[in-house]
Specification:
By secondary structure, the protein is an all-alpha fold. The chain has two helices and no strands. Helix 1 packs antiparallel against helix 2. The longest helix has 36 residues. The chain is elongated and about 55 Å long. The relative contact order is 0.14.
């Protein structure tokens, strides 16, 4: 999962949320999908943080 691009992770997360809202998961599947969603959220947050740090570093080097 760590090799997913941000957009792919976000798309998977959106699919999980859409299916949850439509009650498409049974109770057992819901628990699995919630864990997957948590991992996807962490992955997205980590990628955003890393990108922000890289941008700040580039900006600092320019100054």
């Amino acid at each position: 999962m760590e090799n997913l691009k941000y957009e792919e992770a976000l798309n998977q997360l959106e699919t999980i949320v859409r299916k949850m809202e439509a009650n498409e998961y049974d109770i057992d599947e819901l628990a699995v999908q919630l864990k997957t969603a948590q991992r996807l959220i962490k992955l997205c947050k980590d990628k955003l943080t890393k990108t922000e740090e890289e941008i700040q570093k580039i900006q600092a080097e320019k100054e």
